Automatic annotation (TrEMBL):
Annotated organism of origin: Dactylococcopsis salina (strain PCC 8305) (Myxobactron salinum)
PANTHER family reported for this sequence: FAD/NAD(P)-BINDING OXIDOREDUCTASE FAMILY PROTEIN, FAD_NAD(P)-BINDING OXIDOREDUCTASE FAMILY PROTEIN
Family matches, as InterPro entries: Amino_oxidase, FAD/NAD-bd_sf
Molecular function terms from GO: oxidoreductase activity
Protein name listed in UniProt: NAD/FAD-dependent oxidoreductase
Length: 340
């Protein structure tokens, strides 16, 4: 085991929207915060990828969250700030849910991951760090990553998709009451196979390049060129329905599933040639049921948060739910741990 033994006021596991917002809240009130994320980059499901193809340009793909909507005042004010910073702008794509039909929808100007990068700009975020266990040690927590590095902290907030956080509690032998297990493990997520396609020519789609197909296999198609984030490459994102993605979750089925999604998108793609494709399987994409509180306190200074939790307004989007969860757990830890 390494000698690194960092004393931090708060460790946040997960650098998606919820974890980053919690970190900003805590740091702005004087806490020392460190965010650990297993991914190569930050943002979690605020995900943008570049694919460079010699002679065919560079494709830039949003392949997780497609757009941002805000119902509540707090998230609206953050969104407005991102708009003023020219990180986001309005996008007239089709709405994915009834609740979003009348709401303005925003896209990242250069890709949605930039929003996460901006929130994290003054934070201590360590990527490429997968947390594998937690231990209570006297008044603090010891957190271990898969390289056996150890981090020590007064409090810990877990913001991975809820089933992954529950696995972490289980493997760390941290007890929860039967009632809490039952309720927390009732939170479920849709699966989503995303396909990133570089194509030879522009395609023209309705709704400014973002269209809810609602087919049996294909749920959503976005032309990132038309959307405005991929000026030098014809980059198209396809998203499979939950049912189709779930059926093709086993790894040997995924390439077949990618071909089927491309075939299902042909009507929108026209005669363009597919130059390259990549698949990304989201085991947890958007929550189906959410825990009816903004976060959950496991034991005094260990918390669960993320988009599996929702406070008050059931119809807020997944991103707004993640934001509110991070915001509320951050505020709670500030006061309950006597930081402010
Ligand atoms: C395909 C797709 C389309 C979507 N479209 C929309 C949309 O249009 N609008 C909308 O509102 N929402 C959409 N969503 C949902 C939205 O992206 C999520 O609700 C939101 O980003 C979740 O944020 P989060 O912080 O809760 O979780 P995440 O963004 O998943 O962040 C959790 C982080 O925890 C990290 N992590 C997990 N386990 C560990 C570990 N053991 N150690 C260290 N780090 C760990 C992960 O790497 C990840 O970065 C979409 C999601 C997907 C996948």
């Amino acid at each position: 085991m390494s000698d690194s033994n960092l004393r931090k006021d708060c460790l946040i596991i997960g650098g998606g929207l919820s974890g980053l917002v919690a970190a900003v809240q805590l740091q702005s009130q004087g806490a020392t915060v460190k965010v650990l994320d297993k991914g190569r980059g930050i943002g979690g499901r605020l995900a943008t990828r570049r694919i460079n193809i010699p002679n065919s340009g560079e494709g830039i793909f949003d392949y997780g969250a497609q757009y941002i909507t805000a119902q509540g005042e707090t998230f609206q004010s953050w969104l407005e700030n991102w708009r003023q910073l020219k990180l986001v702008e309005e996008w007239n794509c089709e709405a994915k849910t009834e609740a979003e039909v009348k709401q303005p929808k925003y896209r990242g100007v250069k890709g949605i991951r930039d929003v996460a990068k901006s929130i994290a700009s003054d934070l201590d975020v360590q990527t490429g760090t997968k947390v594998v266990s937690l231990q209570r040690h006297q008044d603090s927590w010891r957190v271990f990553d898969e390289e056996e590095n150890q981090y020590e902290s007064d409090s810990v907030i877990l913001t991975a998709p809820l089933p992954q956080s529950l696995d972490l509690l289980k493997s760390s032998q941290i007890p929860l009451s039967d009632a809490a297990w039952e309720q927390l493990s009732g939170v479920s997520y849709r699966m989503c196979l995303a396909v990133l396609l570089m194509v030879s020519d522009p395609i023209l789609m309705p709704y400014a390049g973002g269209y809810q197909v609602k087919g049996e296999k294909l749920d959503w198609i976005a032309c990132n060129h038309q959307k405005g984030i991929s000026p030098h490459g014809y980059a198209v994102t396809l998203q499979g329905t939950h049912h189709f993605s779930e059926q093709h979750y086993p790894k040997p089925l995924r390439d077949i599933a990618i071909q089927e999604l491309i075939a299902a998108a042909r009507g929108y793609l026209g005669n363009v040639t597919v130059i390259e494709y990549q698949g990304h399987f989201w085991r947890y994409s958007t929550p189906i049921d959410r825990f009816p509180e903004p976060f959950f306190t496991v034991i005094d200074s260990l918390y669960l948060a993320g988009d599996g939790f929702v406070s008050g307004e059931e119809s807020v989007s997944s991103l707004e739910g993640a934001f509110l969860s991070g915001w509320e757990v951050g505020n709670f830890v500030v006061f309950s741990q006597g930081i402010a």
